[in-house]
Specification:
mainly beta; 2 domains; single chain; 131 residues; 5-stranded antiparallel β-sheet
């Protein structure tokens, strides 16, 4: 593999949701279970670029994310959060799932959240405006 310069950013490990052995350096997204799968449609929401070649579902997948992945306290009890859901702010400064067209979002959930006040990994994509 050739040497890559990520400008100080490091790939993040996610679980592969399928055989990705032919998708190295291509765009990937989350499936409903929070696993990484290949993008296969123009309306997909990519989370980053696959850096390796996991051969089976469940294998670790190294992804260079489009933005940093950070912990955010989220409220997911009344409106459950799934991996890939758009996250924005609540009235109490916690992250919540955004569902209204043109809501401002800070990024995408990297994992599910079904309780309130729980920190989850969120992929920050601050240019992502709307749902």
């Amino acid at each position: 593999m050739s040497t890559q310069n990520f400008a100080g950013r490091e790939p993040v490990s996610f679980e592969a949701g399928e055989d990705l052995s032919t998708y190295q350096y291509k765009l990937v997204k989350f499936n409903a279970s929070g696993q990484v799968i290949h993008c296969n449609g123009a309306g997909d929401v990519p989370i980053g670029i696959l850096q390796d070649t996991p051969a089976a579902a469940g294998d670790p997948a190294s992804v260079l994310p489009l933005g940093p992945v950070v912990k955010v306290y989220c409220d997911g009890q009344s409106v459950n959060i799934a991996a890939g859901d758009p996250i924005g702010t609540s009235a109490t400064s916690t992250g919540i799932k955004k569902t209204t067209d043109k809501d401002h979002v800070i990024g995408r959930a990297c994992e599910a959240c079904t309780t309130d006040g729980v920190p989850i990994r969120v992929l920050l994509t601050p240019c992502d405006i709307g749902v």
